[in-house]
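Sharing a chain and its predicted structure for anyone who wants a worked example. Both blocks are below, sequence first, tokens second.
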Amino acid sequence: MKELEEVAAALDRQDYRQAAKLLKQLQQQEPDNFWVKLYAGRWYEGTDKLETAEKVYRKLLKDATNPKIVSQARQGLQRIEDIEQNRRQEAIIQAKTDPTNQELGVLILEPLAPEKKQIAAQTLARMLKTDPYTARMQLQSRGWRLYKTGEMGELKVYGQEMLEAGIPVFWVCLTEIQKLHVFQVQSIQSLSPQPTIICQNEQEQLGSMTFNWQEVTQRVEGLLPLFVESLDYDPRRPKSERFRHKETTQDYAQICDLHLPKRGCILRICDQNYDFQQGVDFSQFSSEALPANQNTNRIHWNLLKEQLNGLVNHAQLWSEFTPFAETTLDYTQFLGRIKPHIYLSRKSESIWDNAFHLYSGLVFFK
């Protein structure tokens, strides 16, 4: 067909104005012609309308049966992927010329509405060079996911591209989190009119702090597993391996961070090292008298939390630490760079502590 040959020739010599004119006529005459659709895709590609071109090529892969058209549609998709990859690499190289963009950071995926996942998964699949199903599994319905670690320049480029595609993300520099001052609250001496606390700084120096509850803008809660080693017996294993040492969760430490952004600090309260024998007696807030045999730290902790909930109910609560932590556990080397500022009685260090400080730090700078 002469008109199709003319369109192809115009596209080959990058005469997109002439190609558009010819395509307009052909689309009116033969709107269902797959060759016309293919050349329309090439026109979109050549005029840098890559998203539209990709949609055209993908629809051709789904609908067309002519091997030549299918082959050229695949080639078009590959060219688009190469263009995007090259642009991304150029942007990363440019971003890294700024020394601050050479620092380590994290890229965090935020929850995405289910109805938006299909389109977002296609974009993410191109970036990951994987299939849409695998990419879709990376997208969150609730809570955060640690998606990528690396230099800030690279994370910013990926992040901007994902934001433009409608994928909610944010990125934070590790140095910012490491600069945070964390005070371990040992006891609360008074609740009102202004709270006064006894706390320990990073140098393990004890001191007191008085502040206003309105200074607390966010609170972060989490459970940290406390592990114990046990023997696991399985008669189905070979005789020499029937007994194995296994780490199991014995209990959980409860932790609550109060963020005071104007002071650039976090007040960290943990039920394992808070001294309930000092300061405010929280048993006075119990609606019932506590029998001596039930006067436990867990009860006192719950009473303390009830008071905090009332006093800082203006502060946003973040309590989805556990699902976030589960997305970080493969990043052991990165988590190892984070000082957790959590002091629990453990036989060995746990990266769950590092993950909580990362989570709280991300909330602080979000």
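Comments welcome. The chain has three domains: 2-91, 99-176, 181-365.
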